[in-house]
Amino acid sequence: MISGFYNILKPTGFTSSDAVVKLRGILNSAYRTKVKIGHFGTLDPGGSGVLVVAVGNATKLFDRFTTHTKIYRAEAVFGATTDTLDSYGEVLEKCDWYNQAEVMPDSFYNNLYCNIDNTINSFLGKQKQLPPIYSSKSINGVRAYDLARNGEKVKLNEADIEIFSIRINRIVKNRISFDITCSSGTYIRSFVRDLGLKLGVPAFMSYIIRLECAGFSIYDSVTLDEVSRNINAGFTSLEEYSKRLPVFKITEELKNDYAVGNKIYSDLVGLIRVEYNERFLSIGEFINRRLKVLCVNDTNPVRISEFDKEINKQKYSLALGYFDTLHIGHLEIIRELSKLNGIPSLFTFSKSLNEFIKGKSERDLYSFRDRVNLFEKYGVKTVFVEEPNRDFLNLTPYEFLDYLTSKINIGAFVCGYDYTFGVNASGNIDILKTYCEERNIELRVIDEKTVGGKKVSSTLIKESLKNGDILSANAFLGRTYSVLGRVQKGRMEGRLMGFPTANISLDDMLIVPKYGVYKGRVRVQGKTYNSIINIGTHPTFDDNKVNLEAYIINFDKDIYGYLIEVFLDDYIRDIVKFNSIDELKEQLKRDLGVFNE
Fold first, then answer.
1. How many CA atoms are closer than 13 Å to the CA of 403, on its beta-carbon side?
2. By three-state DSSP, how is residue 156 classified?
3. Please, are residues 446 and 319 in contact by the beta-carbon 8 Å criterion?
4. Residue 400 φ then ψ, to 5°
5. Nearest residue to 411 (alpha-carbon basis) of 512, 319, 514
6. Which of 51, 297, 360, 417 is at a distance of 20 to 30 A from 253, taking alpha carbons?
7. What is the location of CATH 2.40.30.30 in the chain?
8. Domain 4-68+216-239 has CATH 3.30.1360.170
């Protein structure tokens, strides 16, 4: 799972929570699992600009961002004020000249702004500020703006803030545009109100754009639409962010202390990057000179190294297998992990052993990355992985098990009844059982699983997909088979016929289900829609290119470049070459009838 920060360009009309909800839907769909997410530095619905959203382990840094610096560009309008102190509220007070502000003589404004530089500078430094009554401040667990909207009296306390700089960009009549750098908790609406008071006139803020927040700049921010098209747009990983911080290096003398949480001291102040041998371990902070680890690097859970053994003294319950299809038998192995002694984890290979040993390509259901995402979705906390190589595969069964136990503090093994390991697959359950008994390691062996009298296996699932028997494949998997891909431009014939489709390329290294037309669903932008799906060629248009084409029912948005997930529920028919476009259109209408059955 990813950990880091998204620099989102929040539009006006969106609350900060609205933006987070939409981003959560995008990420959940892309990674096929629930993503931990939250924002800091709330922007009002009428405001736009930088909204920093933390995901994964980065959310553990929220408390450390309560004092970060922000930069805003805003405009103050003089001569009137509103109940919300911005242009969205009701006017409470208005000067006689306000409606003629555009034609008031320059002498009037020269008098109003005669001492503007000194007035502006008087706001610099630490000070007390009264927040607006329409704000997110909490009063006995209720937001101030909710109380104000209900007509209740709102009494807020002044807050400590600091303004570091104010630069006037432009003065036009009764409007002043300015950039302001301030501490977290500063309300620019309140600053505009207080500036008007010093000038002797009512004032409100007409617009606000956040240019920078906690070091994230508007020049690097992206829209939510851009993230939908490219999941890495606007993203800074936890490790990349850590490069901004002072470094504290774990030495050979300190690594065991770090591993078990012993006290480590330093005079460093603020957030730090903790690393060992140039490798990022965590972000921490020295509190009373003692190291406190705030969040660890989990951007790549697929890892195994000598040092991991040192820093992970906790026990692991370890599932063994390739888990290429993650069928119902695999899922029971994974579910068993949480019942045992240790952190749920899994050991697997990065590619098929048969492909490595036999030297011929063997297609899987999922890419390695997709497998890891599914592992995490079903509760695996750490994935240990090896890439097949001749030396590793020549290990005897006992050497293989010794290798694992030397790297990982194993409390329990879980595997299927037919699991084999070691050179030439010479290790079996009996050997594993003896090994575990000798070392007091718990062992759980999962019995074979059957569906409809057939023994569930990856081979059977792959054959079912190749034969178009989606109902059986889904039963063996224990979930609906799906394909993940990015929408690309197609031939456009579907749109011209009134049946616009979303097209995605199929991975040459993965299983392609039987060519044909399927009943299914498409998940896009966090929502799922019924769909008719064509997999294969398009003989009516003399197009022999193989791809997946989905007609999404009751959906007409432009999603070119978006990541979508296509679920196959049932096989409808074979691909047919029609004599005319009209014949094809009539067949597509009949295909849609499957949703009325």
1. 18
2. coil
3. no
4. -60, -50
5. 319
6. 297
7. 480-596
8. no
Close Cβ partners of 243 (under 8 Å, ≥ 6 residues apart): 273
- Which CATH code fits 245-296? 2.30.130.10
For residue 298, indicate whether it is catalytic.
no
Contact status, residue 63 vs residue 29, Cβ threshold 8 Å: no
In the DSSP assignment, the letter for residue 594 is G
Q: Express each pLDDT in 44-84 by its tens digit.
A: 888 899 999 999 889 988 877 766 789 999 999 999 999 98
Catalytic residue among 44, 364, 569, 591: 44
Ranges in the chain annotated CATH 2.30.130.10: 245-296
The two three-digit tokens of residue 557, written as one number: 């948005």
pLDDT tens digits, one per residue of 169-224? 999 999 999 999 999 889 999 999 999 999 999 999 999 999 999 889 999 999 99
Question: Cβ of 540: how many Cβ atoms within 10 Å?
Answer: 17
Identify whether the C-beta of residue 516 lies closer than 8 Å to the C-beta of residue 573: yes
The strand pairing partners of 91, in sequence order, are: 82
> Which pair of tokens denotes residue 60?
């553990």
Q: Which residues does residue 532 pair with via DSSP β-bridges, in sequence order?
A: 519, 551
Spell out the alpha helix ranges (H) of 255-394: 255-260, 306-311, 328-337, 353-358, 368-377, 390-393
> How confident is the model at residue 311, as a pLDDT?
44
Q: How many CB atoms lie within 10 A of CB 56?
A: 20
CATH code of the domain made up of 306-451: 3.40.50.620
SS3 category, 124: coil
Whose tokens are 């937001």? That residue is: 143
